[in-house]
Amino acid sequence: MSALIVEFPIYIENKSRFHDFVQKMAYRAVQGRLRYGPPNRRKRYLKRLKKEIKAYEETGNMEHLINAAVYCHLETCEPENRKFHFDNTVESATRGKI
Description:
mainly alpha
């Protein structure tokens, strides 16, 4: 088993909760890889991500958030969105707007 080391340059509250979430996400990603094989664009991860968020809104079950996080990762591997790119200078969609 390999280890993922997450370094925090500043103090973060609930660091153990963050580690717990990331560990659950890693377990789920490995389970999915073993069950469904390597990432594949035809699996439509963006659509699945939206369904998990909706299920979380309806139930409050953290399980859906973990699944959504894995789908976020898989979407970066095999994007369904044809406009997929990375631009860290984009204006926040939420900051000061909610």
